[in-house]
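Office hours follow-up: a student asked to see two folded examples consecutively, so here they are.
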Amino acid sequence: MKLPLLIQACVFCAAAVSGFLLPQVATPAATPDIREVSVFEGGIRYQAGEYPVLVLNGTFREMGRQ
């Protein structure tokens, strides 16, 4: 009865230790080309690949105008 429990414990420990011992390979994320497109009253528009990125500053009215 204790043998299956012992086997399960060994398998669990082996799996836990192998996670620490195996080399972790990190693949670099594809970083899009980020470029500044335009500036207007403190707001900046960037283009990150196909996505527009807006950086707004000021009050809600100023940000609405930007």
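And the second, which I mentioned at the end of office hours:
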Amino acid sequence: MNESALRDEICRVGRSLFDRGYVHATAGNISVRLDDGFLITPTDACLGHLDPERLARIDAHGQQSGGDRASKTLALHRRIYDADGQARCVIHTHSTHLVALTLQGVWSSNDILPPITPYYVMKVGHVPLIPYHRPGDAAVGDLVAQRIAAMAENGTPIRAVMLHRLGPNVWHRSPAEASAVLEELEETAKLWLLCNPKPAPLDDARIEALRQTFGAAW
């Protein structure tokens, strides 16, 4: 996509997430990587009412060259792009069920949710928990970059992390693909919280079949 189309796509995805309750008020942000910089939603912008011309444009050196003031999470987004060369879009939300999961207690610090559905395994994969830091704390970027590198070294690359009490950061090759990861992650958290008793995770044989058939990175 060219820059104009990417601006429109950011607004389309933002509106879609807002209309379906995945984001609310002015929480959340979306960025894309350009060949010579980045686009990111402005600080305190509602993702349901974005203007493509007012998206913040950042050059390759981190200086803003257009649009409204950039979201304070830009530094974290840039760390994700640096750590994963295939990432072209990053989405952060305060999705209700995922935040609730961190408040009640995640499955483990390395996997906030167990592999309870095949599409969670295939489309999302492992999602580690990042300990709480205040919004915008630069230390979070270091922790996320370290997790991305460690998981890639283990042969199980990730495309999402969960910030304790704040929400997920997900990334992929396009806004549409990143949005799909976010939605699958939030809906799996909802399923997990609704189930009582809790379901057993998929066993090793079933996960291996997903690896062999669909190339799942689990």
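Two things to take away from it. The helical segments are 3-19, 74-83, 96-104, 118-124, 139-153, 175-194, 204-214. The first helix runs from residue 3 to 19.
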